[in-house]
Specification:
Helix content is 38%, strand content 14%. The protein is an alpha/beta fold and 341 residues long. One of its GO terms (molecular function) is endo-1,4-beta-xylanase activity.
Length: 341
Protein backbone atom coordinates (compact mmCIF):
# COMPACT_ATOMS: atom_id res chain seq x y z
CA UNK A 1 0.00 0.00 0.00
CA UNK A 2 1.53 3.30 -1.07
CA UNK A 3 1.73 6.21 1.41
CA UNK A 4 -1.17 8.61 1.59
CA UNK A 5 -0.22 12.17 0.63
CA UNK A 6 -2.28 13.60 3.45
CA UNK A 7 -0.32 11.47 5.95
CA UNK A 8 3.02 12.39 4.39
CA UNK A 9 2.12 16.09 4.66
CA UNK A 10 0.19 15.91 7.93
CA UNK A 11 2.64 18.15 9.82
CA UNK A 12 2.91 20.64 6.98
CA UNK A 13 -0.31 21.78 5.28
CA UNK A 14 -3.54 20.35 3.92
CA UNK A 15 -3.34 18.77 0.48
CA UNK A 16 -6.28 19.54 -1.78
CA UNK A 17 -7.69 18.59 -5.17
CA UNK A 18 -10.05 20.48 -7.48
CA UNK A 19 -12.97 18.20 -8.24
CA UNK A 20 -16.46 18.08 -9.63
CA UNK A 21 -19.39 15.74 -9.05
CA UNK A 22 -17.91 12.88 -11.13
CA UNK A 23 -14.85 12.64 -8.84
CA UNK A 24 -16.81 11.64 -5.76
CA UNK A 25 -17.92 8.34 -7.31
CA UNK A 26 -15.64 5.30 -7.17
CA UNK A 27 -12.94 4.60 -8.20
CA UNK A 28 -11.99 8.31 -8.19
CA UNK A 29 -13.48 8.77 -4.72
CA UNK A 30 -11.14 6.12 -3.31
CA UNK A 31 -8.12 7.99 -4.63
CA UNK A 32 -9.50 11.29 -3.38
CA UNK A 33 -10.34 10.00 0.09
CA UNK A 34 -7.02 8.30 0.56
CA UNK A 35 -4.71 11.15 -0.41
CA UNK A 36 -6.52 14.44 0.03
CA UNK A 37 -7.97 16.33 2.98
CA UNK A 38 -9.30 19.39 1.17
CA UNK A 39 -11.36 19.98 -1.96
CA UNK A 40 -12.06 22.93 -4.23
CA UNK A 41 -14.99 22.89 -6.63
CA UNK A 42 -13.44 23.06 -10.10
CA UNK A 43 -16.53 24.84 -11.48
CA UNK A 44 -19.58 24.32 -9.25
CA UNK A 45 -19.09 27.44 -7.07
CA UNK A 46 -18.34 29.95 -9.83
CA UNK A 47 -20.77 32.84 -10.38
CA UNK A 48 -22.48 31.25 -13.40
CA UNK A 49 -22.99 27.99 -11.53
CA UNK A 50 -24.36 29.59 -8.36
CA UNK A 51 -26.56 32.30 -9.91
CA UNK A 52 -27.31 31.54 -13.59
CA UNK A 53 -30.14 34.07 -13.67
CA UNK A 54 -30.46 37.01 -11.33
CA UNK A 55 -31.91 36.04 -7.98
CA UNK A 56 -32.07 32.35 -8.91
CA UNK A 57 -29.48 30.49 -6.82
CA UNK A 58 -28.51 26.88 -7.56
CA UNK A 59 -26.45 25.18 -4.88
CA UNK A 60 -27.18 21.52 -5.66
CA UNK A 61 -23.93 20.54 -7.38
CA UNK A 62 -21.82 22.55 -4.92
CA UNK A 63 -23.70 21.04 -1.99
CA UNK A 64 -22.90 17.53 -3.17
CA UNK A 65 -19.21 18.35 -2.89
CA UNK A 66 -19.43 20.10 0.49
CA UNK A 67 -21.54 17.26 1.93
CA UNK A 68 -19.01 14.76 0.60
CA UNK A 69 -16.11 16.70 2.12
CA UNK A 70 -17.77 16.88 5.53
CA UNK A 71 -18.72 13.20 5.49
CA UNK A 72 -15.07 12.36 4.78
CA UNK A 73 -13.35 14.73 7.18
CA UNK A 74 -12.11 17.11 4.50
CA UNK A 75 -12.09 20.89 4.36
CA UNK A 76 -13.59 22.87 1.47
CA UNK A 77 -11.95 25.91 -0.14
CA UNK A 78 -14.44 28.25 -1.86
CA UNK A 79 -13.81 29.33 -5.47
CA UNK A 80 -14.81 32.00 -6.45
CA UNK A 81 -17.10 34.91 -5.54
CA UNK A 82 -16.02 37.51 -8.13
CA UNK A 83 -14.39 36.70 -11.48
CA UNK A 84 -14.45 38.17 -14.99
CA UNK A 85 -14.89 34.68 -16.46
CA UNK A 86 -17.66 32.12 -15.93
CA UNK A 87 -19.91 34.95 -14.83
CA UNK A 88 -23.34 35.22 -16.47
CA UNK A 89 -23.99 38.05 -18.97
CA UNK A 90 -26.84 39.50 -16.89
CA UNK A 91 -24.32 40.58 -14.28
CA UNK A 92 -23.03 43.39 -16.51
CA UNK A 93 -26.43 44.45 -17.89
CA UNK A 94 -29.27 46.65 -16.66
CA UNK A 95 -31.79 44.60 -14.70
CA UNK A 96 -35.32 43.69 -15.71
CA UNK A 97 -37.70 46.57 -15.19
CA UNK A 98 -35.01 49.13 -16.01
CA UNK A 99 -35.59 51.36 -19.08
CA UNK A 100 -32.44 49.89 -20.64
CA UNK A 101 -32.99 46.30 -19.44
CA UNK A 102 -30.51 43.90 -21.00
CA UNK A 103 -28.22 46.69 -22.29
CA UNK A 104 -24.63 46.83 -21.03
CA UNK A 105 -24.08 48.83 -17.86
CA UNK A 106 -22.12 52.06 -18.10
CA UNK A 107 -20.05 53.55 -15.31
CA UNK A 108 -22.41 56.00 -13.64
CA UNK A 109 -22.86 55.94 -9.86
CA UNK A 110 -26.20 54.26 -10.44
CA UNK A 111 -24.57 51.54 -12.55
CA UNK A 112 -21.88 50.95 -9.93
CA UNK A 113 -24.54 50.66 -7.29
CA UNK A 114 -26.24 47.93 -9.34
CA UNK A 115 -22.93 46.04 -9.37
CA UNK A 116 -22.42 46.48 -5.62
CA UNK A 117 -25.99 45.37 -4.86
CA UNK A 118 -25.46 42.27 -6.97
CA UNK A 119 -22.19 41.52 -5.21
CA UNK A 120 -23.91 41.89 -1.86
CA UNK A 121 -26.77 39.59 -2.89
CA UNK A 122 -24.35 36.99 -4.26
CA UNK A 123 -21.93 37.01 -1.32
CA UNK A 124 -24.88 37.18 1.06
CA UNK A 125 -26.45 34.08 -0.45
CA UNK A 126 -23.14 32.17 -0.18
CA UNK A 127 -22.67 33.29 3.42
CA UNK A 128 -26.23 32.40 4.32
CA UNK A 129 -26.05 29.01 2.61
CA UNK A 130 -22.59 27.89 3.73
CA UNK A 131 -21.79 29.91 6.84
CA UNK A 132 -18.47 28.60 8.12
CA UNK A 133 -18.71 25.18 6.44
CA UNK A 134 -16.28 26.52 3.84
CA UNK A 135 -13.19 27.80 5.66
CA UNK A 136 -11.96 30.24 2.99
CA UNK A 137 -13.20 31.93 -0.18
CA UNK A 138 -11.50 33.43 -3.17
CA UNK A 139 -13.28 36.76 -3.00
CA UNK A 140 -11.70 37.95 -6.24
CA UNK A 141 -9.94 35.89 -8.89
CA UNK A 142 -7.38 37.08 -11.45
CA UNK A 143 -7.72 40.86 -11.03
CA UNK A 144 -4.05 41.56 -11.88
CA UNK A 145 -3.10 42.13 -15.52
CA UNK A 146 -0.60 39.99 -17.42
CA UNK A 147 0.69 43.26 -18.85
CA UNK A 148 2.81 44.37 -15.90
CA UNK A 149 2.73 48.01 -17.00
CA UNK A 150 -1.07 48.04 -16.90
CA UNK A 151 -1.12 46.55 -13.33
CA UNK A 152 -4.87 45.84 -13.07
CA UNK A 153 -6.81 43.56 -15.42
CA UNK A 154 -9.09 45.69 -17.56
CA UNK A 155 -12.17 43.52 -17.07
CA UNK A 156 -15.82 44.59 -17.18
CA UNK A 157 -15.56 45.11 -13.42
CA UNK A 158 -12.62 47.45 -13.89
CA UNK A 159 -14.34 49.32 -16.74
CA UNK A 160 -17.57 49.92 -14.85
CA UNK A 161 -15.71 51.18 -11.76
CA UNK A 162 -13.09 52.94 -13.91
CA UNK A 163 -10.42 51.51 -11.68
CA UNK A 164 -9.64 48.80 -9.17
CA UNK A 165 -11.88 50.01 -6.30
CA UNK A 166 -14.30 47.15 -6.91
CA UNK A 167 -11.70 44.83 -5.37
CA UNK A 168 -11.79 46.59 -1.98
CA UNK A 169 -15.59 46.81 -2.19
CA UNK A 170 -15.74 43.05 -2.76
CA UNK A 171 -13.69 42.29 0.36
CA UNK A 172 -15.68 44.69 2.56
CA UNK A 173 -18.99 43.34 1.28
CA UNK A 174 -17.94 39.70 1.68
CA UNK A 175 -16.70 40.35 5.23
CA UNK A 176 -19.98 42.05 6.16
CA UNK A 177 -22.03 39.21 4.75
CA UNK A 178 -20.07 36.40 6.44
CA UNK A 179 -19.94 38.30 9.73
CA UNK A 180 -23.70 38.89 9.54
CA UNK A 181 -24.31 35.13 9.71
CA UNK A 182 -21.73 34.66 12.47
CA UNK A 183 -19.11 33.19 10.12
CA UNK A 184 -16.45 35.53 11.42
CA UNK A 185 -13.66 32.95 11.00
CA UNK A 186 -14.15 32.46 7.28
CA UNK A 187 -10.96 33.64 5.54
CA UNK A 188 -11.08 35.93 2.52
CA UNK A 189 -8.48 35.38 -0.22
CA UNK A 190 -7.30 37.16 -3.34
CA UNK A 191 -6.33 34.55 -5.92
CA UNK A 192 -4.26 34.82 -9.10
CA UNK A 193 -1.98 32.97 -11.48
CA UNK A 194 1.54 34.01 -12.40
CA UNK A 195 2.36 35.04 -8.84
CA UNK A 196 5.78 33.46 -9.43
CA UNK A 197 6.42 36.04 -12.18
CA UNK A 198 8.27 38.84 -10.32
CA UNK A 199 6.53 41.71 -12.14
CA UNK A 200 3.03 40.37 -11.69
CA UNK A 201 3.86 39.31 -8.13
CA UNK A 202 4.91 42.84 -7.23
CA UNK A 203 1.73 44.32 -8.71
CA UNK A 204 -0.35 41.90 -6.66
CA UNK A 205 1.77 42.60 -3.59
CA UNK A 206 1.26 46.36 -3.92
CA UNK A 207 -2.50 45.94 -4.29
CA UNK A 208 -2.72 43.74 -1.20
CA UNK A 209 -0.38 45.98 0.81
CA UNK A 210 -2.49 49.04 -0.08
CA UNK A 211 -5.70 47.26 0.88
CA UNK A 212 -4.27 46.20 4.24
CA UNK A 213 -3.06 49.76 4.88
CA UNK A 214 -6.60 50.97 4.12
CA UNK A 215 -8.12 48.47 6.55
CA UNK A 216 -9.69 46.32 3.82
CA UNK A 217 -10.39 42.86 5.30
CA UNK A 218 -8.18 40.68 3.08
CA UNK A 219 -6.89 37.61 4.93
CA UNK A 220 -4.99 35.62 2.38
CA UNK A 221 -3.27 35.30 -0.97
CA UNK A 222 -3.90 32.33 -3.24
CA UNK A 223 -1.12 31.33 -5.62
CA UNK A 224 -2.76 29.41 -8.46
CA UNK A 225 0.63 28.07 -9.64
CA UNK A 226 -0.18 26.81 -13.13
CA UNK A 227 3.47 26.21 -13.96
CA UNK A 228 5.71 24.02 -16.11
CA UNK A 229 9.05 22.25 -15.91
CA UNK A 230 10.64 25.53 -17.04
CA UNK A 231 9.32 27.54 -14.09
CA UNK A 232 11.97 28.56 -11.58
CA UNK A 233 11.19 27.08 -8.15
CA UNK A 234 13.23 29.95 -6.71
CA UNK A 235 10.66 32.36 -8.14
CA UNK A 236 7.82 30.34 -6.62
CA UNK A 237 9.64 30.50 -3.29
CA UNK A 238 10.44 34.22 -3.50
CA UNK A 239 6.76 34.98 -3.92
CA UNK A 240 5.82 33.03 -0.78
CA UNK A 241 8.60 34.82 1.11
CA UNK A 242 7.51 38.22 -0.14
CA UNK A 243 3.89 37.78 0.93
CA UNK A 244 4.99 36.33 4.26
CA UNK A 245 6.28 39.81 5.00
CA UNK A 246 2.72 41.11 4.84
CA UNK A 247 1.52 38.65 7.45
CA UNK A 248 -1.25 37.28 5.22
CA UNK A 249 -2.30 33.65 5.03
CA UNK A 250 -1.21 31.84 1.88
CA UNK A 251 -2.37 28.83 -0.08
CA UNK A 252 -1.30 27.19 -3.29
CA UNK A 253 -4.70 26.94 -4.93
CA UNK A 254 -4.45 25.40 -8.43
CA UNK A 255 -1.13 23.61 -8.86
CA UNK A 256 -0.23 21.80 -12.04
CA UNK A 257 3.19 21.29 -13.66
CA UNK A 258 2.87 21.03 -17.45
CA UNK A 259 5.44 18.91 -19.27
CA UNK A 260 4.13 19.33 -22.82
CA UNK A 261 2.31 16.61 -24.70
CA UNK A 262 4.40 14.10 -26.61
CA UNK A 263 5.53 15.91 -29.77
CA UNK A 264 4.78 14.64 -33.27
CA UNK A 265 7.18 11.80 -33.97
CA UNK A 266 8.65 12.06 -30.50
CA UNK A 267 9.87 8.74 -29.28
CA UNK A 268 8.32 7.29 -26.17
CA UNK A 269 11.58 7.36 -24.15
CA UNK A 270 11.81 11.15 -24.52
CA UNK A 271 8.32 11.57 -23.16
CA UNK A 272 9.00 9.11 -20.35
CA UNK A 273 12.08 11.18 -19.53
CA UNK A 274 9.88 14.24 -19.07
CA UNK A 275 7.64 12.33 -16.70
CA UNK A 276 10.72 11.47 -14.65
CA UNK A 277 11.89 15.07 -14.78
CA UNK A 278 8.43 16.03 -13.51
CA UNK A 279 9.01 13.69 -10.57
CA UNK A 280 12.19 15.55 -9.69
CA UNK A 281 10.36 18.84 -10.11
CA UNK A 282 7.52 17.87 -7.75
CA UNK A 283 10.11 16.60 -5.25
CA UNK A 284 12.02 19.91 -5.26
CA UNK A 285 8.83 21.99 -5.26
CA UNK A 286 7.31 20.19 -2.28
CA UNK A 287 10.64 20.20 -0.42
CA UNK A 288 10.49 23.99 -0.76
CA UNK A 289 6.80 24.13 0.21
CA UNK A 290 7.52 22.07 3.32
CA UNK A 291 10.26 24.50 4.33
CA UNK A 292 7.55 27.18 4.21
CA UNK A 293 4.87 25.09 5.88
CA UNK A 294 4.35 27.84 8.48
CA UNK A 295 3.24 30.12 5.65
CA UNK A 296 0.99 27.69 3.80
CA UNK A 297 -2.53 26.67 4.78
CA UNK A 298 -2.96 24.23 1.93
CA UNK A 299 -1.58 23.10 -1.40
CA UNK A 300 -4.23 22.12 -3.96
CA UNK A 301 -3.64 20.35 -7.28
CA UNK A 302 -5.98 21.42 -10.11
CA UNK A 303 -7.50 18.04 -10.92
CA UNK A 304 -7.57 14.67 -9.22
CA UNK A 305 -5.61 12.96 -12.00
CA UNK A 306 -4.21 13.69 -15.48
CA UNK A 307 -7.41 12.59 -17.17
CA UNK A 308 -9.23 15.41 -15.37
CA UNK A 309 -6.73 18.18 -16.08
CA UNK A 310 -8.19 21.36 -17.54
CA UNK A 311 -5.02 21.77 -19.65
CA UNK A 312 -6.30 19.07 -21.98
CA UNK A 313 -9.25 21.21 -23.03
CA UNK A 314 -7.67 24.66 -23.37
CA UNK A 315 -8.32 26.49 -26.67
CA UNK A 316 -5.19 24.88 -28.01
CA UNK A 317 -5.99 21.36 -26.86
CA UNK A 318 -3.09 19.50 -25.37
CA UNK A 319 -4.61 16.03 -25.52
CA UNK A 320 -1.93 14.24 -23.59
CA UNK A 321 -0.74 16.92 -21.21
CA UNK A 322 -0.02 15.17 -17.91
CA UNK A 323 0.59 17.80 -15.22
CA UNK A 324 -0.59 16.03 -12.05
CA UNK A 325 0.69 13.42 -9.54
CA UNK A 326 -1.74 10.69 -10.62
CA UNK A 327 -2.22 9.25 -14.12
CA UNK A 328 -5.37 8.80 -16.20
CA UNK A 329 -5.49 5.27 -14.79
CA UNK A 330 -5.35 6.72 -11.24
CA UNK A 331 -1.85 5.33 -10.78
CA UNK A 332 0.85 7.11 -8.85
CA UNK A 333 3.34 8.80 -11.18
CA UNK A 334 6.93 9.88 -10.55
CA UNK A 335 5.37 13.20 -9.56
CA UNK A 336 3.55 11.47 -6.70
CA UNK A 337 6.78 9.78 -5.56
CA UNK A 338 8.51 13.13 -5.77
CA UNK A 339 6.07 14.53 -3.22
CA UNK A 340 6.54 11.49 -0.97
CA UNK A 341 10.32 11.86 -1.25
C1 LIG B 1 -11.03 26.07 -15.16
C2 LIG B 1 -11.69 24.70 -15.03
O1 LIG B 1 -10.70 23.77 -14.63
C3 LIG B 1 -12.32 24.30 -16.34
O2 LIG B 1 -13.07 23.10 -16.18
C4 LIG B 1 -13.24 25.41 -16.84
O3 LIG B 1 -13.73 25.07 -18.12
C5 LIG B 1 -12.52 26.72 -16.91
O4 LIG B 1 -11.96 27.03 -15.65
N1 LIG B 1 -7.93 29.59 -13.18
C6 LIG B 1 -9.00 29.43 -12.32
C7 LIG B 1 -9.88 28.24 -12.47
O5 LIG B 1 -9.16 30.22 -11.40
O6 LIG B 1 -11.20 28.53 -12.10
C8 LIG B 1 -9.83 27.69 -13.87
O7 LIG B 1 -10.59 26.49 -13.90
C9 LIG B 1 -8.42 27.46 -14.31
C10 LIG B 1 -7.64 28.75 -14.33
Amino acid sequence: DIPSLQDVLADDFRIGAAIDARDIADPSAQLLGKHFNQITAENHMKPDAIQPTEGDFTFDAADELVDYAEANGMETYGHTILWHSQVPDWWFQYPEGHAEAGEPLGSSDEDRQIMLDRLEAHAGALAEHYGDRIWAWDVVNEVISDNNAEIHRHSRWYEIFEGPEYVSHAFRIAREQFDAVGATDVKLFINDYGTENPGKRDNLYNLVADMIADGVPVDGVGHQTHISLNTSIDHVEQSIEKFAGLGVLQSVTELDVAIGAPGEGEEFPQYEARLIEQGHYYRDLFAMYREHADQLESVTVWGLHDGRSWLRSLTEPRPLESPLPFSDQLRSKWAYWGIVD
